[in-house]
Amino acid sequence: MVETLSIAVIGAPGVGKTSIIRQFIYNDFSEAYTPTRTRYVYRPSVILNGNMYELKILDVPPISSFPSSSSQEWLDLRCRGVRNANAYILVYDICCVESFEYVKMIRQQIVEHREGSSSEVPILVVGSKRDLQRQRFTPRRAVSVLVKKTWKCGYVECSAKFNWHVVLLFKELLGIAVARGMRQNHTSIRLQGALQRNRCTIM
User: Fold this and answer.
1) Whole-prediction pTM
2) Coil/strand/helix, residue 198
3) Per-residue pLDDT tens digits for 116-165
4) What are φ and ψ of residue 105, in 5° steps?
5) Which residues, in sequence order, are bridge partners of residue 128?
6) For residues 44-73, b (16+ Cβ closer than 10 Å) or e, as one string?
7) Picking from 7-21, 40-54, 61-75, 173-187, which range would have the lowest pLDDT averaged per residue?
8) Where are the alpha helices (DSSP H) in 14-165?
9) 155 strand-pairing partners
10) Please, are residues 11 and 99 in contact by the beta-carbon 8 Å criterion?
């Protein structure tokens, strides 16, 4: 039986959430910016430790806050499935401090409102648009230390445009999930990319 892992991808407008997802699944990138207005679900498969897993990736439109209750979640179509996700990818633009403040707010709300033990929920903070490195608002190390040491979350930077560290960030997230006991198999991770119907990307 193939297990399903639900991953909610959340971030401020224009940070590149959809571009990261589409690069991971389809090896595709578009320069044109199309705002995400409704929640969209992608269902790729990955190979982890020799086993196949179905990923349910929720591309979440910008939300004003993390739903504090199940009733709030179901009243807003954009939020459906967010509270019960198995893991979270919080994306910010390394050139936009406001997008980082948004991630900071959402992470805190996940800790406060998530059902069950929030400390067991894997959260990966992703700095997008690494190709614009010279325009970043703060050194990478400052963000990395805050996220890893204070927030106790994973941290990766990537470029969807150049497909740099995109597969790595999903590998990192699944690594956190394994380390926190979501999966019983604690051997090393071997993620062979996204398998979408007839196309297979091998790392």
Assistant:
1) 0.87
2) coil
3) 555 578 999 999 999 999 999 999 999 999 999 999 999 999 999 999 99
4) -65, -45
5) 93
6) bbbbbeeeebebbbbbbbbbeebbeeeeeb
7) 173-187
8) 17-26, 70-75, 97-113, 140-145
9) 125
10) yes
Residue for token digits 């994306």? 91
Q: What pLDDT, in 10s, does the model give residues 72-103?
A: 888 888 888 898 898 999 999 999 999 999 99
Q: What is the DSSP letter of 202?
A: -
157 CB-near residues (< 8 Å, 6+ apart):
94, 126, 127, 128, 130, 140, 165
Residue carrying structure tokens 């980082």: 100
CA dist 141 and 159 (Å) reads: 17
Instruction: State which H helix or E strand residue 51 sits in.
Output: strand 51-59
**Closest to 143 in 3D by CA, of 129, 162, 157:** 157
